[in-house]
Amino acid sequence: MTAPPRVLTVAGSDSGGGAGIQADLKTMLALGVHGMSVLTAVTAQNSLGVQGAWELPVEAVRAQYRSVVDDIGVQAVKTGMLSSAELVEAVADLLAGTDAPAVVDPVGVSKHGDALLAASALDSVRTKLLPVATVATPNLDEVGQLTGVRVGSEPDMRRAAAAMLEFGPRWVVIKGGHLSGDAVDLLTDGSEEHWLRAPRQDNRHTHGTGCTLASAIASYLAKGHPVPEAVTAAKTYVTGALASGFALGGGIGPVDHGW
Ligand code: PLP
Q1: Record's Pfam families (predicted)?
Q2: What domains appear along the chain, each with residue ranges and CATH number?
Q3: Does residue 14 sit in helix, strand or coil?
């Protein structure tokens, strides 16, 4: 049997299984690629929030990455929670040395308001990580933190995208899901513009949507789709996963990968 495309996630663990590495691997399994993981941090987490977080040493992150890439190889990489400036810079250096496309989810703060990236790491994200990204997938809070552009309407998303592209990613997806109305995302490389719309889901169980979108984009890229097709297909996947997000624990439940 021929091996499926291989996709690597470099991200944090969510012990509750809804976001982070766990959401990434579930997405990859659902989309028919071989998922691999480089763990950057471990969180004690559930539907109510993050109760604790511990970073891995930078040597452990580098060693996991080398083990995977040097033997198995990757067709696409996704990055998520990177926790500190030191880890952001180490991962950016590793990505600079590969030809595989990199989907960078510049994870800042969880839906519950827990910090997943130190404020002191923002500059490393801007100057080291975003320049090596094929696709960056910030939400509106992350756009605000990284660029200072506050998005209150769809036209603002254009300004936000332009500001993000100045940091150097080839493409950016501005996730406008927190605006009212349809869930609208803007994908652009500065010349092409794709507005991706999906009806708003009336479902509060949205834990893991950002991780899932970025992993789905990486999975479709690994299967050989060009960026606009990969992002469009990934949005369809997330919309389905979100439609069947379910209650678990006493708080915000996860999106569903079995839909
Ligand atoms: N936990 C980890 C390890 C994550 O990587 C992320 C998001 O990237 C989250 C939690 C946040 O998930 P959400 O904001 O969807 O609740």
Answers
A1: Phos_pyr_kin
A2: 6-243 (3.40.1190.20)
A3: strand
